[in-house]
């Protein structure tokens, strides 16, 4: 949903439902904000998770809250973009465990370029292109194909399983997430007093 609609929901809930209002605890500290409570409730509804699955989100410190806000802001766009690409190109739907990052990057760039060209063509209607616009430098116009590109599947299943294990390693996940939290905080966070 867009931000305007979300903020409308937050305002209505904070005005009409006591649970969603920010309150102070017995020590006078402010509790969870209306925004945090609404975000957690909508996450439960959207992802179908148990209510206690958002406890970690609600306990986050300011750095992690900022990271979660930025992550959620782009997650929807990324999911929508992949959905469009998966609908148009079957290769994007298939598992990519056997490919390295370079090959996956080339495939994704090719699909994105083709998708954008198709959208532009559909938007502008059919038009003729001058092929000289697409030639760079002193290209002789030949259609050289890079035969070094290979889609061979690795024969060593142990190597593939090792890569899969590293990708699913919890400690590695937490380290990468921590690095991303710090990066977002340095880029978008407040001054030293907010830490």
Automatic annotation (TrEMBL):
What is the protein name given in its UniProt record? DDE Tnp4 domain-containing protein
